[in-house]
Design a protein that fits this description.
By secondary structure, this protein is of the alpha+beta class. It has helices at about 30-40, 60, 95-115, 135-145, 150, 165-170, 180, 205-215, and strands spanning about 10-20, 70-80, 80-90, 125-130. A hairpin with a 2-residue loop joins strand 2 (about 70-80) and strand 3 (about 80-90). It is globular, with a radius of gyration of 17 Å.
Length: about 220
């Protein structure tokens, strides 16, 4: 969708971007963890320099005090060559500022680590306005089921083969917020602001059951 979309406070959006030329943007576990950390640190009206905490354990990074947040994050998923975010803007211009801080900080980290220069992402971030409950709920599950593509590439075309294997995989995938909604204890849970999203995202049993329904619909015919 065009970036000319007007972004409004308290509206919900699906934001996503991928690597330049579809290149991988996460090459090891530390890359994923760095991006997750930046999801927390960049979501702040003040600037926090992560370089000041180079030797800090992950637990400390996720407990750094923040001022007012720029956006509320309701869901996220990191894939090898792209990422998805479900967000709500909290202050005027907050979403664009958050994405600028996030993308710049991660690109600087990635380029330094892998001795490269230039843009990492394929242009500016893409955005969709989620203007109905139905659309919002759909994107919530779409984002959380995205890792299925890693082990079942045909699932979106209703060619899912092994549903049990997929369920088990999703419950062990560390780079999305799915397990935070299943109430598994993780330090990354502070990335989310669940209270700013509809309460139909609050019950682990219902979330798991709905995810199962989506997967069952994707089974091979």
């Amino acid at each position: 969708m065009s970036r000319n979309l007007a972004i409004s406070i308290d509206e919900f959006y699906h934001v996503y971007n991928r690597g330049n030329d579809k290149r991988e943007i996460f090459l090891d576990e530390k890359d994923y963890l760095r991006f997750q950390t930046l999801l927390y640190i960049s979501n702040n009206i003040e600037t926090i320099h992560i370089s000041n905490f180079q030797d800090a354990p992950l637990e400390k990074l996720f407990s750094i005090p923040r001022e007012d947040m720029l956006v509320s994050i309701g869901a996220y998923c990191l894939m090898p060559n792209h990422f998805h975010l479900l967000v709500k803007e909290k202050i005027e211009g907050g979403l664009s500022l958050f994405m600028q801080k996030l993308s710049t900080a991660y690109t600087m980290y990635f380029n330094k680590k892998y001795s490269r220069t230039g843009s990492l992402f394929g242009g500016k971030f893409k955005i969709k306005h989620l203007d109905s409950d139905k659309y919002l709920k759909y994107q919530f599950y779409y984002i959380h089921l995205n890792p299925t593509s890693i082990i079942e590439p045909g699932w979106k075309d209703r060619k899912l083969i092994n549903i049990k294997k997929t369920k088990d995989f999703l419950k062990t995938y560390k780079y999305s917020s799915y397990n935070d909604y299943l109430n598994r204890e993780r330090i990354e849970k502070v990335i989310l602001d669940k209270g700013s999203f509809p309460d139909y995202f609050s019950t682990p049993i219902e979330i798991s059951a709905m995810a199962d329904e989506w997967l069952e619909y994707s089974l091979s015919e």
